[in-house]
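hey m, so remember when u said the tokens were messed up on ur end? i reran from scratch. heres the input so u can diff it against urs
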Amino acid sequence: MRIAVTGRQGQVVSALIEVGPKLGVEVLPAGRPELDLLSPETVQPALADIRPNIIVNAAAYTAVDQAEKEPEAAMAVNAGGAMAVANAARTLGVPLVHLSTDYVFDGSKSTPYIEQDRVAPANVYGASKLAGEQAVIAATRSRHGSIRPMAKTSYGRC
């Protein structure tokens, strides 16, 4: 099994690289400059070159505070980049695991959030990650499963 992981140096790709060989899984990081989420046209060719059986989208604009100053960049990476990855997965006919964040919730709940809670991002970073979730759902609608339904809409579980 070949897993393409967007991003080269994050915690997710590092953990997958560590555990993958123990499970007989080849983990192949894909990142800049070959795959640049700010340049959506680079995404599909970079992933096609890997020939994955599955794609994990772990790359993101993660500078939460900086996103307030650079909302366009956060949205371009976290929404536009996510859409490009989802479109590539659809084109390649492979499953996609898209990682999001608890920042899609506003933090006002007094108990732990669960997947079915209503989303309400309180900052630009959360809004950009929610837009990414919605872009992935839109791009993969015919084959979509979700562990967290979006707002009041109900989707099936993976």
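this time it looks ok to me. The chain has one domain: 2-143. if urs says something different then somethings off w ur setup not the seq
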